[in-house]
From TrEMBL, chain A:
It holds the Pfam family ETF. The electron transfer flavoprotein serves as a specific electron acceptor for several dehydrogenases, including five acyl-CoA dehydrogenases, glutaryl-CoA and sarcosine dehydrogenase. It transfers the electrons to the main mitochondrial respiratory chain via ETF-ubiquinone oxidoreductase (ETF dehydrogenase). GO terms for biological process: fatty acid beta-oxidation using acyl-CoA dehydrogenase. It comes from the Eukaryota. Residues 26-209 form the Electron transfer flavoprotein alpha/beta-subunit N-terminal domain. Transmembrane segments: none annotated. It is found in: Mitochondrion matrix. The lineage of its organism: Eukaryota, Fungi, Dikarya, Basidiomycota, Pucciniomycotina. One of its GO terms (cellular component) is mitochondrial matrix. This is Probable electron transfer flavoprotein subunit alpha.
UniProtKB/TrEMBL annotation, chain B:
This is Probable electron transfer flavoprotein subunit beta. InterPro entries: ET-Flavoprotein_bsu_CS (IPR000049), ETF_a/b_N (IPR014730), ETF_b (IPR012255), ETF_beta_N (IPR033948), Rossmann-like_a/b/a_fold (IPR014729). It holds the Pfam family ETF. It comes from Microbotryum lychnidis-dioicae (strain p1A1 Lamole / MvSl-1064). Binds 1 AMP per subunit. Binds 1 FAD per dimer. GO terms for cellular component: mitochondrial matrix.
Amino acid sequence: MQRFASASRVFTLARRSYATPPSPSALVLIEHKDDKIVPASLNAITAARKLGGTVTGLVVGEEASTKAVVEGAQKLGLDALLHRTSPALAHALAEPLAPVLAALVKSGNYTHLTAAHSAQGKNIFPRVAGILGVQQISDVMAIESPDTFVRPIYAGNAIATVKSSDSIKIFTVRSASWDAAVSGEGATEVDAKAAEEVGKEQAAWVSEELTKSERPDLGSAQAVVSGGRGVKSKESFDSIIFPLADALGAAVGASRAAVDSGYADNSQQVGQTGKVVAPSLYVAVGISGALQHLAGMKDSKTIVAINKDPDAPIFQVADHGLVADLFEAVPELTKKVEEAKK
Amino acid sequence: MRASPPTWIKLLVPIKRTVDYSVKVRVGPKGVETAGVKHSLNPFCEIAVEEAVRLREKLKERIESITVVTIGPPKAADVLRTALAMGADAAIHVEVKDGQDVQPLGVAQALKAIVEQEKPDLIILGKQAIDDDSSQVGGMLAGLLDWPQANFASKLEVEGDKIKVAREIDGGLETLMMALPAVVTTDLRLNEPRYASLPNIMKAKKKPLKKMKAEDLKVDLTPRLETLKVEAPPARQGGAKVGSVDEIVSKLKEAGVL
């Protein structure tokens, strides 16, 4: 890879008409689901604040189903809050939504546009970047300055610091790397309008199948219990992993092998191609620890691994590794965790 | 009365040559070391090629052609040959210099120019390349073309002149229906790619592979992001083993997580 592109800098200088860079003015897309703010958006707000300028929240969707979301967003201490509605934005499809975002960024002279690096952010933001002709920065872990960002590459096996020469910076935020913005007193005034520049409805939404779960959300949970191939069946996944997760108040994750074998749902996959988590406690049960899985959990504060293979790579990252048969060790651990809580 | 479906579909499958997924990459003074490291077809691109070939197996003559395209250094021709051996008909190689950093926006703009020449009806790409992990090209291309998009597809069906796609979203699946032309990006669960057989690898050598340069497409591939540095991630202090479940419980109590 070529590291220094002098040509691009010349190009930027020629385009830039102001003497000093403008103070950052960030627009954050607040993702919502079932009348609630998606927790990962709260991490994106914290990242936007790091830029050092104003932070404006944006809630888009159908009018009726976004009222509670706007009320919640008002308490987040944002400098401004925009509410843009249209029946066409009901399912947050990329085709109608991306032109709305592109137009807002231009008309509001925002220097930065950001959202969580969630399935929705990953779906919509590249389309916005394409429309605006901007090179997006994905999965930002740290911000060094308003134009310099830190992001993982090669499944988190290398960390790159990149400097953008675009006049508008579009980036998605790795939620596991940032604290969540908290609600407080007071309420930001809402600028509510019908959305402008809504794109053509090119794709029709047909249906949705969500995995129902009473357990905490995987992306934002304080503790995660994950099962891998070693759990051997869906039945044992349900009877061994779930009770430990419940005892710890944890979310349930899985390795790719467990998902491919049908023990767990796709949306529970932790890793390079699934979710990236960084809880206080990550318990890996029957997971060998392939590079692609480690990419999704190695920033967890404490990692516990239970595996019968003493040479499993998971033990190289685990703080506390137990070489044991999971079918005996996990039920015992569940029992003792329950006792410890009493 | 419904319009009759088009008699054929032309497929375009953009692919990328990346460091093999099983290689543990090393970070050297100049970034990730790629010289002398095993490279292969990006796994998600492999799934995209497989899906294109399966569509032909299902729809027969309705698939007019499958063209694979890559933007990359001379060696990227290898992955085009791999895709041809899997069943693609023709390949286009937009050749750039060895070591040249081509970023997703440049790739999407180059692909748009290729789409204008080739006029495909359906573009299937991987959801992300496992080297830069950007997950952008599909969406950017759909935005540039103003075509509908279905990212992270785990099921793709052609119904008349429309496609029905199940997408993997946070918490489950979402199903969309869209008219062609469209852009689809593949998730892991879409299919299991086949291995190319030896006779097919031999046949692939005779299939057409067109070379061109970025200048031919009139696109500027100058990177917008300058990489200031690449570092190895902080190493974890792992490796401690405990002897019993009780020890885990007491360690967790010490750490304050219980």
